[in-house]
Amino acid sequence: MRVVAVLAAAAAVALVWPVRGRAPRPPGGSSRGPAVAPVLVVAAAGAGAGLLVLADGTRLALGLVSLGALGGAGLLVRRGRAARAATVRQAVVVDVCEALAGELRAGQPPAAGLEHCRELWPDLEPVVAAARLGADVPAALRRLAAVRGAEGLAEVASAWQVSERSGAGLAAALGQVALTARERQGTRRLVQGELASAQATARLVAVLPVASLAMSTGVGGDPWHFLLGTPVGVGCLGLGALFALAGLLWIDRIAATVLRA
């Protein structure tokens, strides 16, 4: 059994080793670095073969449940970080709109105003380059608006496009866009405050079973042996973790839907 596990691990290493170098340069493009996906697939295959050989059914199931729980926790952490980054980006977009409107009211040309706004948000560089080269600035703004949290730039792009086609003043239009964006940001913060209590309650409910297990251990029970050492217990553990993760993701989805609306 152990010989088979060693052979599986050796095969994984042998397959991983050739792809650790730099990936081939695509035609007409630049190199994209090492090929990570094949390495992960082969390593996972080797590890899975070793687990199948060395572990019995209960331990293997417990390991899969643990990996699933870690993956779910990582997914929740990534979603939380992405949501916080989007909130910060929304605030920066509002500041950029107000700053650009102020620059135009002060008599600055649009390209120079964008140059100054780039100091507030370096991600505005593609739009600044488009304005400097005389390219399609509204299209560059809409491309940047596709980033989560920067959706407000689509309204800036519309105002810019209307000003270019009609000759109307861009400063007044951007001033109205900035005012609307600031009001929308205040409403969004109010909604986030209302949703925070529901999200905190959901997280509390998700960790309550752990507290119950600790209390049961304190009064002389042995729930951990059932959950970690028996097939039925491991099944209950996996099902409970799945329900907890689904509930947290469901609450986050509801919150995201409300904020988008």
From TrEMBL:
It is found in: Cell membrane. Pfam families: T2SSF. The keyword Cell division does not apply. Keywords: Cell membrane, Membrane, Transmembrane, Transmembrane helix. The keyword Transmembrane helix applies. InterPro entries: T2SS_GspF_dom. This is Type II secretion system F family protein. It comes from Nocardioides panacis.
